[in-house]
Amino acid sequence: QVHLVESGGGLVQPGGSLTLSCETSGLTFWDYTVSWYRQILGKEREWVASKLYGGGPTDYTDSVKGRFTISRDDAKNTVNLQMNNLKPEDAAVYYCKTRGPFGGKAEYWGQGTQVTVSS
């Protein structure tokens, strides 16, 4: 059974930093593309960043380019999202997702972690 568990959310002031982590189990992590999404209450879930399986390239939504970094630790089956220079509009529930294996369509989601950006 596949499990994804996010952690690292919390309250941070504008301009601050947070690192989110997503620990996975039950799948061959190397074979899956990993992504982060976020959702504000009442709005659609928004894609934030992805890193392709097998050490492939990363991609980001425009609003976070230069501020967020997605990375994966394949030895620990974990994907991280380093968030710098946070803005109030970054506040949301952040979710990690895996998709695969390779070009497959099996998707798994975590339960989400809340990020609040406020002074």
- Helix and strand pattern: EEEEEEEEEEE
**Percentage of residues in DSSP E strands:** over 45%
Euclidean distance between termini CA atoms = 40 Å
Oligomer: single chain
Q: Considering DSSP H and I runs of 4 or more, what fraction of the residues is helical?
A: under 10%
Radius of gyration: 14 Å
Low-confidence stretches: none
Tell me what you see in this structure.
A hairpin with a 4-residue loop joins strand 7 and strand 8. The strands form 2 sheets. Strands 2, 4, 5, 6, 9, 10 and 11 form a 7-stranded mixed β-sheet that branches. Strands 1-3-8-7 form a 4-stranded antiparallel β-sheet, with no helix packed on it. The protein is globular. It is built from no helices and 11 strands. 0% of the residues lie in helices and 52% in strands. The protein has strands spanning 3-7, 10-12, 18-25, 33-39, 46-51, 58-60, 68-73, 78-83, 92-100, 106-109, 113-117. The protein is an all-beta fold.
Structure keywords:
119 residues, mainly beta, seven-stranded mixed beta sheet, four-stranded antiparallel beta sheet, 0% helix, globular
Short description:
With 119 residues, the protein is mostly beta strands.
Helices, strands, pairings?
Layout: E1 3-7, E2 10-12, E3 18-25, E4 33-39, E5 46-51, E6 58-60, E7 68-73, E8 78-83, E9 92-100, E10 106-109, E11 113-117
